[in-house]
Structure formats: C-alpha cells, structure tokens
C-alpha cells in the first residue's frame, strides 16, 4: 500500500508556515479514509507510519539545536489528539514514540540522549516500547563493560517497524530494574506480530523476545536512572497525559462520526413526530450532554499539559511538590477523559439508530479502542490517588503508573 499523500508543503520545517497541528490534521484526514478497514484487518500500519516519518512530526519535541521541531508538550499532545480522532492506533504508536524520546532524556546523561536526538531528527527514526516494568521475564546478566538481556516482554506498542527500542530487564543479582536504548534490529531481538485484541488493533502491542542480546553500558539509562529524581519521575506522568489525550481524541472522533450520521443518514423514530432525527428533543439532549462532557475534558487536558510543560522546563530544579501538582492535574484529566469517552462511544448509537450498527461502518471501533486502552491501568486507582489528595493532602507516590 502506498503512503497517504503528503505534499511537500506539509513537511515540518521551521521556515514554513504550516503548524504541527495543520500537518496532523492533514494526516488524520488521509488516515480516516482507511481507518475502519485497517481496524478490521489489524497488523502494522506501515504506510501510515511512513507518512509520519515523511511529515517530520517524529522530531517535533526534539529541541531545534539537535535538528528537531523544538515544540512544547501541549503542541505535541494536540497532534496526538488530532490523529486519534481518526486513527487511535496510529496516534498511540506516534505518542509512545515521543514517550520513548522523553524516557532517554529523563533517565540518561546528556552525552547519551543528545546523540540519540540528533540521529532521530536526521533519519526520522521511529522509537518503540519494550519496557513494561510489570513483566519481569527479561533478565540482565552482568559482564565486563556490557549486559546481556534474555527473556520476553509483552505489550510492546510500536516495536514493529521501529528503529530504536526502549527495553527493560531485571538485574539477575540485585533485581534492580535496568532500562536501555537499543537498535530494534540488533542480533537476538525478535519482534512478534502476535497482537490480536478487540481494540487498538494496529498498535503492534504484542511481544518482543530477547535472546542473549548484548547491551553496552553506554546504552543503559542509569544516570539519573528510572524514577530517581522528581524530574525523572515526570516519565509516568507523560505516559498518563498521553493516554488522556488519546481517550479524548477517540471520543471526539466518535462524536464527529455520530453527528455526521445523525445529520445525513439516520431516520427519526416514528413516535417522535418530527421529520428529521436532529429535531428530536431527546437526541438534542444527548448531544448537549456529549458537548458539555467533551468541553470539560478539553479544559482539564489543556490545563494538565500546561502544568506538565512548566514542570519539564524546570529540569532538575523541579521538586516533589511541583511534581505532585502535575500528577494531580493529569490524574483528574485522565479520569474525566475515561468516563466521558466511554459514555460518548457507547451512547453515540442512541443518536444514530439501528442502521448505524452495520458492520461495514465499524462505528463500534471507537468504543473497542477506548475500552481496550482504558484498561491499561484501572481508573479506580487514579480516583484513589485523587481521594488521598482531596482528603489527606497526600501527593500520588511516584511509580511507573502514577
């Protein structure tokens, strides 16, 4: 399949007038044409990933001095959300690419992350995920000047068709979590096409095998290392912010599809005594609730992104309280995005009618994608974190999920 058409004027270039959001909108429009069919097929969205490479968006957050776009995190999050309105799988791997870039920045020394940033910007590398701290099957053995990773990782989103991986293993002796940045094509790494879930079907979130993979010491992200300072503890908060933006994007996509169907395809219920479905007062009530819910989530997510970006700019000067405030803002946004998103993607059928359930339309993909993604970590635990703050004034304890 050929890559979605991307005219040169849409390439990310500081000398051009097109914004990152404009480029994302153009890509989202192109991706939407095949999103339903690709959801049914599953597998790797190769053409769409190549279009992202060509667009320059993969270097969006990389500082300009290293060849990147030099954008802030609110801009990155808006591009994630725009892509998710039409294709949440592609938005997922795109967003996780930026999460992996943030991981090397937060966990490693400048002499490590700066060359990786330069190479990524120069060659439009795609970064994939093989970290998953809850999967402890990958073990690291220590040798003189290097480590050996062996085992399997699950939920490795975007690992297929990537140039670089963020991988983790447990030290065989100390059981310490080690995180490394390694080329995906390194000998001993096998990325499997074994992802076949009900939603997010083109995220390639299957498994990766490590068979006696050599990892050099300079590839280990150990200084300052995972979750060792308030600044390095921003990594899980970025992951949560990404999820919230994907959820909102899915909900906005579902809302847009429902609105189009209501206005152009759906028929009024015979007892409504109206000519068009959009004249039905119950339908109008549903849309009013959808809009109010989405507007609330948009405000919370924009606020959370601004909080996160301000904390990012503080670098190592960030303290625990500053990090805690960001955690609370993002947790509130994620809870709202989850609840409103599941509501909109489920109730959209109440404003579109029985014909909208035709399998060819695949409007159920919005709910399937959101339901699959929102189980990434239970929202009840986000509510518990917010409750501990609301009642006891305790900030969330940093972990890979909070």
Overall helicity = 40-55%
Largest sheet composition = 7 strands, mixed
**Shape type:** globular
Q: What string gives the helices and strands in order? A: HHHHHEEEEEEEHHHHH
Instruction: Estimate the strand proportion.
Output: 5-15%
Beta-strand segment tally = 7
Helix-strand layout with pairing:
Layout: H1 20-41, H2 46-55, H3 73-86, H4 88-107, H5 110-123, E1 127-130, E2 139-143, E3 146-153, E4 164-171, E5 177-183, E6 189-191, E7 208-216, H6 234-264, H7 281-314, H8 320-347, H9 365-374, H10 379-392
Parallel strand pairs: 1-4, 2-4
Antiparallel strand pairs: 2-3, 3-7, 4-5, 6-7
Structural description of this entry:
The longest helix has 34 residues, at 281-314. Strands 1, 2, 3, 4, 5, 6 and 7 form a seven-stranded mixed β-sheet that branches. This protein has helices spanning 20-41, 46-55, 73-86, 88-107, 110-123, 234-264, 281-314, 320-347, 365-374, 379-392; strands spanning 127-130, 139-143, 146-153, 164-171, 177-183, 189-191, 208-216. By secondary structure, it is an alpha/beta fold.
Keywords:
alpha/beta, 7-stranded mixed beta sheet, 402 residues, globular, 7 strands
Question: TL;DR?
Answer:
With 402 residues, this protein is α/β, with parallel strands linked by helices.
């Amino acid at each position: 399949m050929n890559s979605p058409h991307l005219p040169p004027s849409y390439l990310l270039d500081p000398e051009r007038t097109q914004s990152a959001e404009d480029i994302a909108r153009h890509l989202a429009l192109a991706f939407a044409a095949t999103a339903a069919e690709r959801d049914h097929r599953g597998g790797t969205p190769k053409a769409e990933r190549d279009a992202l490479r060509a667009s320059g968006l993969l270097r969006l957050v990389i500082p300009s001095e290293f060849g990147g776009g030099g954008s802030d995190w609110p801009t990155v999050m808006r591009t994630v959300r725009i892509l998710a309105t039409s294709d949440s799988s592609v938005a997922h791997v795109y967003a996780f690419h930026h999460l992996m870039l943030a991981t090397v920045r937060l966990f490693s020394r400048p002499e490590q992350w700066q060359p990786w940033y330069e190479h990524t910007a120069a060659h439009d590398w795609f970064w994939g995920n093989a970290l998953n701290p809850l999967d402890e099957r990958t073990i690291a053995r220590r040798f003189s000047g290097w480590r050996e990773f062996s085992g399997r990782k699950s939920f490795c989103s975007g690992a297929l068709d990537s140039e670089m991986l963020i991988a983790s293993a447990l030290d065989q002796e100390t059981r310490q979590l080690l995180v490394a940045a390694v080329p995906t094509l390194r000998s001993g790494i096998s990325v499997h096409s074994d992802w076949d879930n009900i939603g997010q079907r083109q995220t390639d979130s299957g498994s990766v095998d490590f068979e006696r993979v050599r990892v050099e010491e300079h590839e280990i992200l150990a200084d300052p290392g995972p979750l060792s300072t308030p600044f390095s503890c921003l990594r899980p908060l970025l992951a949560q912010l990404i999820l919230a933006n994907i959820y909102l994007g899915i909900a906005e996509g579902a809302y847009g599809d429902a609105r189009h169907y209501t206005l152009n395809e759906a028929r009024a219920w015979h007892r409504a005594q109206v000519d068009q479905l959009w004249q039905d007062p119950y339908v109008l009530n549903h849309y009013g609730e959808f809009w109010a819910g989405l507007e609330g989530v948009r405000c919370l997510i924009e606020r959370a992104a601004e909080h996160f970006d301000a904390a990012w700019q503080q670098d190592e000067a960030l303290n625990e309280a500053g990090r805690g405030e960001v955690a609370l803002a993002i947790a509130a946004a994620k809870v709202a995005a989850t609840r409103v998103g599941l509501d909109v993607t489920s109730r959209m059928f109440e404003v579109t009618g029985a014909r909208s359930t035709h399998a060819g339309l695949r409007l159920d993909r919005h709910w399937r994608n959101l339901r699959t993604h929102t189980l990434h970590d239970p929202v009840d635990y986000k509510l518990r974190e917010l409750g501990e703050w609301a009642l006891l004034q305790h900030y969330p304890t940093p972990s890979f999920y909070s």
